[in-house]
Amino acid sequence: MSAAFEPAHVVRFAGDSGDGIQLSGKRFAERLAAEGNELATAPDFPAEIRAPAGSLAGVSAFQVQFAGRDVLTAGDHADVLVAMNPAALVTNLASLRRGGLLILNGAAFTARNLKHAGLADDPRADGSLDGLRVVDVDLDELTLAALADSGLRRREALRCRNYTALGLVCWLYGQPLDAVSCGTERTGAALRAANALALRAGRDLAETLELPHLDARERPAEPGPGRLVTGNEALALGLMAAAERAGLDLYYSGYPITPASDLLQFLAAREAFGVRTLQAEDEIGAACAALGASFAGALAVTGTSGPGMDLKSETLGLAVSLELPLVVVDVQRAGPSTGIPTRAEQSDLDLALHGRHGEAPLPVIAARGPAHCFEAAYAAARLAVEHMTPVILLSDAAIANGSQRWQPPALEALAPIAPGYAQAGDTFAPYERDQRGVRAWATPGTPGLEHRIGGLEKRDGDGEICYDPANHQRMTDLRAAKVAGAVSEGLAPDDFGAEQGCLLVVSWGGTFGAVRSAVAQLAAHGHTLAHTHLHQLHPLPPGLATRARHFKRVLVAELNQGQLLRALRAALLIDAAGLNKVSGQPFTVDEVRSRLAGELEALRDCA
Amino acid sequence: MTAPEAARDVAAFQSRDEVRWCPGCGDFSILKQFQRVLAELPAPRENHVVVSGIGCSSRLPYYVETYGVHGIHGRAPALATGVKSARPELTVWVVTGDGDGLSIGLNHLLHTLRRNVDLKILLFNNHVYGLTKGQHSPTSPVGQASRTLGAGVEDRPLDVAALALAGGAGFFARAWDRDTEGLRNVLRRAAAHRGTALVEVFQNCPVFNDGAFDEAGFTALAAGEPVALDGGVLGFDALLTPQVVAPGSPRAYVHDETAQSLHLALAGLHAPEWPVPLGVLRAVERPVFGAAREVKRRRSVAELLG
């Protein structure tokens, strides 16, 4: 991380689900990425398609943190909050830092909307906003005036007010308007033109009001490298890249489920790249179709969230027993049961590690951010194919829908993937293994390799159904040994900080940014602490036990009630403690740092 | 042996595995006819894949020397859909039973029919759960004893033909383990059909439901021919109620595999009131799942990474 101090900026847009908050947030983030900023975004929207207008339940928000140097989180607090209505203000005010800039759409502060937001009084007049710099503007009137000659009807014109607000924000951050996209081909010329007019109106108003320039950096002349990518998009691209490098057809089957549906949709639109997809009749059908495609020789993947993972348990067990490659993506969301579909959590780790009856081990990998999803997906596919095993890849709702600037690697630079195809010989023994304990892949259509495999216990070597006790023990041990060796070098832990000292923080998945930021800040103040972020949860990395022994205290930070904590306590025989949160919200850097500071304080004599 | 030679030799389709069905099981006959028909088909042996679920029926793949998967209970059509849609050039068979295919697996079966995936589904119907030792199945007739129903079966059994037809089957046929020639004909027709071909094979379970089909009585369907019944031939009145009519009567039904509007009426012939018609009930062409477009890589993902 760069030592030079350079401020990061955090902007948060909030409004009704129908206000185009996600869209304008995305356009802003795209522009920032194109300019070369590092950034991280956090969309926060409800599961419902459209709750009643102005209601608290219908508020949708989008936050982005950006800077010229490393940005690890979307920001604990916003410098600027745009609140399009009272409900958005109520639910998002706490995210604005003291002294921050609050932009309100005054037109929305009607008696009716105040009531919907559960407010007895108008917050603009009752002192609730003291300490903030408030910009109260009638964005409705401004938008209508700007689009008076556009030919749009009143309701359509008002829908452009998200761009009016965006224009204001562009002024604040010195972003040239012509660099902001007003829409795609599908948006249509008329609407794109209207958006552009609204954008200008917002910016012009900001100039008239003499709003400050919050980003004093010189704007670069050339666009920066890389582009914006969401976790789901990066994950899908990683799978496609793996299939191509392996010389396999990608087969993705899934069932619509928040927040994984995008994976199926993205890949379904990519037939031209040789991708086959199936929207199955249910989660089990999806997993089974993928497994069947794997038997047929495809790079097969099925993706879902928590509820779907529950349903796929039996199919995963079959995949373990058959020893076929299969990637299973779990984009975790707040649970249990239906839970909170659009919020992130890390509470499926236990399910991933243990969620099959019998002894059914498999490798488990976790992505740590939107851009990392590409390499995590690629590594998962490579492990699956090269070790003839199902692999679970964990992501989460915040990673899936969040975005970062990403510089895609060249396809040729990626590690090769070599399927271990069987050679036709005298008789094919489907469960004969190489020195890594991996069996060969014999795909239908290959003469001389005809064979049958199934979920019943089979004999080591020839694969015939076998109930012999010694064989069952042997096969159980062989399957475990194979998985124990399924380690991806590209997924080694990310270690930071001291080699030894008072405190080691261990984390996994999407908490990387918040934990690394907190640890780095404390380290910069002279504390001897360290951070290890895991990318592969099973098997655990070999050096972890040694590393843990060099610290007086180990703290495991995760958005669950201690799932990795329990696994590490058992595996490493250490008295580790947990830093846990299950609110559906990410860790803030603040709260992690507070807890770590407290731990370091208590460990004072450790120095 | 070269592939075409092997394809003509029934022995080439017999695996080394010792067959573990009970003596007298109808599955032996079905296996034999299946192997004979496989040997006749033009597809090379390595292009056949047999996918099964769980049950006595589902042990069949182990006894056939082709690629095969013994899957999980009820999910064979889903597994098979994956095999076929990943590799459309393969010939994919599904072997299931009345429990596996019509209880836990009914959902997948219906969606397979709806999509018209080019699979040949062989459903061995013995009206009982054999492998788990004698519970009733969705097709067990009212009054059949069951180890999980003290008073015997009270629920109406599933009408397999009607369900298949209403579910969108383009090909539905029935066979009987003792009518070996009829079974072979049906298997050949199923193999030749493009789209989902559902074949219901009445199969005797000598241990848990012996003689279930002895009293039933069967009659035969042949395209262009009337359907023989005791005392005459099959006819339908104006409300499509089946009745026995004199041969040559204007109300006599002449079987037409494509006359879809009459097939549900034909499916209404149930034991014990009627002999059950064996043979191909329906064979119509419908758009086949995945056949409209060939998925082929024309662009590289490198374009999206650039």
Q: Write down the Rg of chain A.
A: 26 Å
Number of helices, where a helix is a run of at least 4 consecutive DSSP H or I residues of chain A: 19
Helical coverage of chain A, percent range: 25-40%
The helix-and-strand class of chain A reads alpha/beta
Q: What is the helix/strand order of chain B?
A: HHEEHEHHEHEHEEEEEHEH
Helix content of chain B: 25-40%
- N-to-C CA distance of chain A: 24 Å
Number of strands of chain B: 11
Assembly state (oligomeric): heterodimer
Sheet with most strands of chain A: 7 strands, mixed
What is the secondary structure topology, with strand pairs?
The complex is a heterodimer of chains A (607) and B (306).
Chain A: E1 9-16, H1 21-35, E2 38-44, E3 59-67, E4 78-83, H2 86-92, E5 96-105, H3 111-116, E6 133-137, H4 139-146, H5 154-158, H6 161-172, H7 189-208, E7 227-230, H8 231-246, E8 250-254, H9 261-268, E9 276-279, H10 283-295, E10 299-304, H11 306-322, E11 326-332, H12 349-354, E12 364-366, H13 372-387, E13 390-396, H14 397-401, E14 403-406, E15 452-454, H15 469-484, E16 494-497, E17 501-508, H16 512-524, E18 529-534, E19 536-538, H17 544-549, E20 551-558, H18 563-572, E21 577-580, H19 589-602
Parallel strand pairs in A: 1-4, 4-5, 5-6, 8-9, 8-10, 10-11, 11-13, 12-13, 17-18, 17-20, 20-21
Antiparallel strand pairs in A: 1-3, 2-3, 7-14, 12-19, 16-18
Helix pairs in contact in A: 1-6, 4-7, 6-7, 8-9, 8-13, 10-11, 16-19
Chain B: H1 3-7, H2 27-40, E1 48-52, E2 67-70, H3 76-86, E3 91-97, H4 98-104, H5 106-115, E4 119-125, H6 160-166, E5 171-176, H7 180-192, E6 197-202, E7 218-220, E8 228-229, E9 232-236, E10 242-245, H8 260-267, E11 276-283, H9 302-305
Parallel strand pairs in B: 1-2, 1-3, 3-4, 4-6, 5-6, 7-11
Antiparallel strand pairs in B: 5-11, 8-9, 9-10
Helix pairs in contact in B: 2-7, 4-5
Question: Could you explain how this protein is built, in words?
Answer:
The complex is a heterodimer of chains A (607) and B (306). Chain A is α/β, with parallel strands linked by helices and 607 residues long. Chain A has 19 helices and 21 strands. Chain A has helices spanning 21-35, 86-92, 111-116, 139-146, 154-158, 161-172, 189-208, 231-246, 261-268, 283-295, 306-322, 349-354, 372-387, 397-401, 469-484, 512-524, 544-549, 563-572, 589-602; strands at residues 9-16, 38-44, 59-67, 78-83, 96-105, 133-137, 227-230, 250-254, 276-279, 299-304, 326-332, 364-366, 390-396, 403-406, 452-454, 494-497, 501-508, 529-534, 536-538, 551-558, 577-580. A 7-stranded mixed sheet of chain A has the order 9-8-10-11-13-12-19, sandwiched between helices. Chain A has a 6-stranded mixed sheet with strand order 2-3-1-4-5-6, sandwiched between helices. Chain A has a 5-stranded mixed sheet with strand order 16-18-17-20-21, sandwiched between helices. In chain A, helix 16 (512-524) packs across helix 19. Chain A is globular and about 85 Å long. Chain B has 9 helices and 11 strands. In chain B, the strands form 2 sheets. Chain B has an 8-stranded mixed sheet with strand order 2-1-3-4-6-5-11-7, with helices on both faces. A 3-stranded antiparallel sheet of chain B has the order 8-9-10, with no helix packed on it. Strand 15 (452-454) of chain A pairs parallel with strand 2 (67-70) of chain B.
